[in-house]
Amino acid sequence: MTHKTLISLFLWLASLPLFAQTAGDSIPTERRFPLTSFIVPATLAGGGAALLGHPNREPFKSTGHVSSADDYLRFGPYGLRVALQLAGVKPAVNLGDEIAVTVLSNVAMAGVTEVFKRTINSTRPDGSDRRSFPSGHAAVAFTGAELLHQAYKHKSPWISIAGYVLASATSVLRVANEKHHWADVLAGAGIGIASVKITYAVYPVIKRKLQHHRKQPAS
Fold it and tell me: Name one GO molecular function term (predicted).
């Protein structure tokens, strides 16, 4: 497949925050479940599921080991968030809420990813093991990118795009390094984004119940 296809896929993944942004994505004060915000992750996960077991349908083939940068790039969006905070750029939520949604999102992402890896047992392109689907690297990277997007989309869309560029680069390298099929990284991206959006939907309920419990007098 031509480099144009590779570049097009990379740019499409990197531009996801422009399509995914909805008014219901910020942490709400009332219980809401913005289903429209799940269109993008559902499309990614669905695309990955459709390609699963059909490598000939994928946009292009792996080319062999290219770089080990993907092992570090997956944490790029998280590093960018820390750098922005150290620079004094305030996120949309307070530090306590930001830590909470980060932890909950990553726990959800890791749990779902591990369940699918153990259940599906898909062989990696390089044959090293049967933990190919979905891509954990892509899931981590896109969880970080979506968290960055939610925290700083009110500042500049370029911050969101930067996070998604790092996540997209991670995914492309996983395929190029023969560690994953495209089905794996698409599903991983969808799981990562969905984990954050679900957390943003349910976190207000969890927080409210915890606050109510703390206010109750001890018996």
Answer: phosphatidate phosphatase activity
